[in-house]
Design goal:
With 148 residues, this protein is α+β, with helices and mostly antiparallel strands. The chain has one domain: Thiol Ester Dehydrase, Chain A. β3 and β4 form a beta hairpin.
Length: 148
């Protein structure tokens, strides 16, 4: 079953997430980050940052927090057994830090097929803003579902 094209331009409920220092430091160390501005608050201050800097891919982790793919995408026709994560793009406009309260607003911007319907694509874009309304980043992800 292909993605339900009626969901093009569908806006998901807004999500608010606090960037917690301990989780941020743990994530940074887990991905092998060696720059201490991501896990040592004194080092971040020494480099002019107000707190620990959020590493680029951490925003994607926060964007999927508190939901399952089945809950979020099930109504769209997503079959996890046929799903591929095709692409992930990040466009950054300003930095995010530990202690920030971020708002994630996701929208499906396109659904289309290729290879005579053998591959179904869903493009989702998520705008991320901080507690001051500053546009931190736009995340864009492409999901591909194989037919058959």
């Amino acid at each position: 079953m292909p993605f339900n094209r009626n969901y093009i331009n569908h806006i998901f409920p807004e999500k608010k997430v606090e960037v917690e220092k301990g989780r941020l430091a743990f994530f940074s160390k887990t991905i092998g980050e060696t720059n201490p501005i991501y896990f040592d608050e004194m080092a971040a201050h020494d480099k002019g940052h107000p707190s620990l800097l959020v590493p680029p891919t951490f925003l994607f982790s926060l964007s999927i927090e508190g939901e399952t793919f089945t809950e979020k995408y099930g109504p769209l026709g997503m079959d996890l057994s046929k799903l591929l994560h095709g692409a992930q793009d990040f466009n950054y406009y300003c930095s995010a830090y530990a202690g920030d309260n971020l708002t994630f607003q996701a929208k499906i911007i396109d659904i289309f097929s290729k290879k005579d319907g053998a591959l179904d694509f869903l493009i989702e874009e998520t705008k991320v803003e901080n507690q001051n309304g500053s546009h931190i980043a736009t995340l864009k992800q492409t999901y591909i579902m194989r037919e058959g």
